[in-house]
Design goal:
single chain; binds iron/sulfur cluster; rSAM_sf; iron-sulfur
Length: about 425
């Protein structure tokens, strides 16, 4: 299959646009003037079930939804569109709306490594033993864009990309050599696997020379959005050779595959792609967020995990969708997320017992929503900090926060876990 991608303008020329119910077309026109839209021919032809649009989960996974904008902004944009599109006014208003929604990355400073006081571009030190790297070409795009993506701000935004990425492949070397405690390097993006194998190798090679780095992680949704990347793309074989080469250099290669719905695993081409990756010795660990209207039942998750295991992959994390700005409409109540996780595990082969979740992914602590406990007749959510960033205390700590059936918000997790200056793995605080 030849890769064809569509943006908000070219998609309107397809027959699929005409198939959208009228109100969905209106939402698409308005929302895609604010958020970047990208979809490819495989997703359109083989993943979305057009008979069930707008309720189809893959449709919801790609197409923006009305709730992503504040009602007043939506209304104003609608009026601007209906009034014959004065492009200049529209552009200015869209910029204003976007600015309001720029995700606030709290405490970002603590995650940015420095050498001699100078910031290393494109490197984020998530936890003591892991860093994420953002080489410039990897920060640019994906095979399709997910409606819930918190990285939307990076797409088509040269300034944001340049500020948070690096171009010289040797940029992270000095820091990594000076920090032998860093064993895992994560290449993330956007999606690193949109790049040619040669370009990927250029950025991965300098890291392979560092003895203390033992694990190379590549985070990608390409198996779901474009499985031909591993089968019939021109350099598919070269990419798989690169996977073998990384391991021949003594590193463990972990493919962090992003899956949201079992449909993404059902076509023959994705099964073939998974097998070809596994044949290189690479371990595929799967993760994805629990998202309102897309995968918010126990059946969705047990089907997803059972299929992943049947195909030889490892279910790894169920994430709680980020809650800043536009993503908050994708989040479900914490109590419901926990219940879905627990019910789904009961319906899944015992091999899925190692999957962790629901886990908050966007704060400095990687925090597990571990269960509900009752103390003195009061119910609480038990939260556990699985990992904390370097120089921050709290890792291993358990905190209790008041239970609520409807809340989607656990409050400020950084403040919650930072309060305890002397972290002990057995600490339990009741707020
Ligand atoms: S593939 Fe990943 S980075 Fe790309 S849009 Fe989806 S969530 Fe965002």
């Amino acid at each position: 299959m030849k890769f064809i991608s569509y943006n908000n303008t070219s998609f309107k020329k397809t027959t699929y646009y005409k198939r959208l119910p009228e109100n969905e077309r209106e939402v698409f026109d308005i929302l895609s003037s604010v958020f970047h839209f990208k979809v490819n021919n495989y997703v359109l032809e083989h993943l979305i079930d057009w008979e069930t649009v707008p309720n189809d989960p893959i449709y919801k996974l790609i197409f923006p939804r009305k709730e992503m904008l504040q009602p007043t902004d939506y209304k104003t944009l609608l009026l601007l569109h209906q009034s014959g599109l004065d492009e200049k006014t529209l552009f200015q208003f869209v910029q204003k709306v976007k600015k309001k929604m720029y995700p606030e990355v709290k405490h970002a400073e603590t995650s940015i490594p420095k050498v001699n006081g100078v910031r290393i571009r494109g490197m984020y030190s998530n936890f003591e033993t892991i860093v994420s790297l953002f080489p410039d070409p990897m920060a640019k795009t994906c095979h399709s864009y997910c409606s819930y993506c918190f990285r939307w701000i990076m797409f088509n935004n040269k300034e944001a990309q340049q500020n948070s990425s690096y171009t010289d492949p040797n940029e992270p070397v000095e820091y990594l050599r000076a920090h032998p405690e860093i064993t895992d390097v994560l290449f993330t993006g956007a999606d690193p696997l949109v790049l040619k194998a040669k370009t990927l190798q250029k950025y991965i090679d300098p890291v392979l020379d560092i003895e203390s780095v033992k694990v190379i992680r590549i985070s990608s949704k390409s198996l779901a959005w474009w499985p031909f990347r591993f089968t019939t793309d021109k350099d598919a074989d070269e990419l798989l050779k690169l996977f073998k080469y990384i391991q021949s250099r003594g590193k463990h290669l972990n493919f962090c595959a992003h899956f949201t719905h079992v449909r993404e695993l059902e076509n023959d081409v994705v099964k073939e792609a998974i097998q070809r990756i596994r044949d290189t010795g690479t371990v595929i660990r799967c993760q994805g967020p629990i998202v309102e209207g897309i995968n918010d039942t126990p059946k969705d998750w047990s089907a997803l995990w059972n299929t992943q295991i049947a195909l030889g992959m490892v279910p790894y994390y169920m994430f709680i969708e980020a809650d800043h700005n536009s993503e908050s409409c994708f989040r479900i109540p914490l109590a419901k997320a926990l219940q879905i996780f627990q019910e789904a595990q009961k319906k899944t082969t015992g091999l899925a017992r190692t999957v962790r979740g629901p886990v908050f992914m966007n704060d400095l602590h990687r925090t597990l929503l571990d269960g509900i406990v009752t103390v003195n007749d009061q119910r609480y959510f038990a939260l556990k900090s699985l990992q904390a960033p370097p120089n921050m205390v709290g890792e291993g700590t358990i905190k209790l926060i008041p239970y609520s059936e409807t809340t989607k918000d656990a409050g400020d997790l950084i403040a919650l876990f930072s309060k305890e200056q002397e972290a002990r793995s057995t600490t339990v605080d009741i707020l």
